[in-house]
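Example record

The entry below shows one chain as it appears in the dataset: sequence first, then structure tokens.
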Amino acid sequence: AAAQAPPPWALNASRSAVIFLTGLGGSTLPLCLGTGQSSALELGVAFSGGVFIAAGFCHLLPDATEALSDAMGIDYPVAPLLCSLGMLAMLIIDQLTTRAIAKRGTAPAPVRLSDEDEAEPADHAPGEEVVPLLSSGLIPSIILFSALSFHSLMAGLSLGVSDQTAWAIFISILAHKAFAAFALGASFVRHLAVSRRTIACWMLAFSVTTPTGVMLGTALTTVAESALTGALTAVAAGTFLHVGLIEVAQRELAKAEHVCGSMLMLLLGFSLMALLALWV
């Protein structure tokens, strides 16, 4: 007899574990390697941007359109509407984040514990003076953490509620998670004069956001109609497109040192993910 396929919750639990380890490894790597933005990271971010654009257009949005059309039966482009709302929501969050960081940029320079702490963050000994919260550069990093966590949660939800496109979404999340996590970890290491343990706690919290979304989406599919799962998938498509088009294609390429290489990696990521739509 043919082997029985594992239940969806078991597959998603396994995927969540892989995503968690990927995010944790990428986010804690700056603690070991320093804060330098290497060419490999730049090219990898561009590749992940192409993956996200293709995932939104070629995988998530068609799947959401089919689900909503079957469930609602109305002659209105509901899926594109929800996709646009998801993209607009991410744009608004991004603008609020940018403005908050810009305002914070006018504040006095961060206060360092000592010359040694400035060179390399270290664990504080008991009773050692700790840098005040608002003077340590923590606010911009927390804002970045919040924005990336929201997107990670939405990406996890899209994976949890998906069926036919689950593997494509899983691949796109992995392609971007490590680079986004590395960038977040580098932001904390670069701007903070706090302990490694504190940074590791923030990175651990970020690493669990996508798995949390995956399992939440999996739970919703057991009680929700296809209209809800289709709506969540459409909104997630908008967040994917925002990351690919705005965060990477526009913002990252504008400051890339290797523009041609980054553009080629963007096209390569898009092409491979679009080609994957032939099978999944």
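Notes for this example: The chain is about 75% helix and 0% strand. The CA atoms of residues 90 and 120 lie 34 Å apart.
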